[in-house]
Structure formats: C-alpha cells, structure tokens
C-alpha cells in the first residue's frame, strides 16, 4: 500500500511563455481555456508529488478571470492543496503574468513586470486512487 504525502500547503509552480500562435482575439488576447489547461498540468504534478499518481481532475467550484492573458506573456501558474480527503484533494489555483510582451515597442520586445499581475484564480478538486 502506498503512503500519501498529501498535505495542505503543498504548492507546485509552473511557468510558460505564451506563443503568438495561441492568440485568438484582437489585441493578441488568449482564451481562458489556455489557463485552465495550465491548471490541469500543475494539478497533475500536485497529484504526482502528493500521491505518486497523476490523479484525475473532478471539478472546478469557482473560476475567476480577472485580467487578460496575451500572446508574448510569460505566465506562472500555482496550485496549492487546501484540503485533503480520503481520495480527494481540493486545490486553489492562481495564474499570474510575470513578463509581458510589448509589441508597441517592437515585434520582440517584452518586459519583466515589477509585480506579477494575477489574471485568473480558481478552486478545484482532484481525485487519486486508493491504495
């Protein structure tokens, strides 16, 4: 029987550059589904770190899109375990832009933001197999 290391406070962080091929709207805006896919990736690593299994995403209980994500940004996503059940883990997610593309300066210009810009928050539940 495997022993779970799932504990509240366990946090996993991923960063990713958002390529221009993912822009779907005027102003190089990227759809919200892109961030939700990143949340799925970071949730998978949380399950691996905590339980030695990829687990399955069961549901979101809340998703808030606060600011836009644009092609050329570098986005950081975090998932933190906030509740541990027998097979379920409740996670809180946050996505922040840490670098922003600056096409107004030149095609390849970008800047590191002084403070990360929180663009999306969510809560979700993952489940892992027992034993």
UniProtKB/TrEMBL annotation:
GO-annotated molecular function: 3-aminobutyryl-CoA ammonia-lyase activity; hydrolase activity
Domain HotDog ACOT-type: 8-131
Protein name, as recorded: 3-aminobutyryl-CoA ammonia-lyase
Alphabetical UniProt keywords: Hydrolase, Lyase
Domain of life: Bacteria
EC numbers on record: 4.3.1.14
InterPro entries tied to this protein: HOTDOG_ACOT (IPR033120), HotDog_dom_sf (IPR029069), Thioestr_dom (IPR006683)
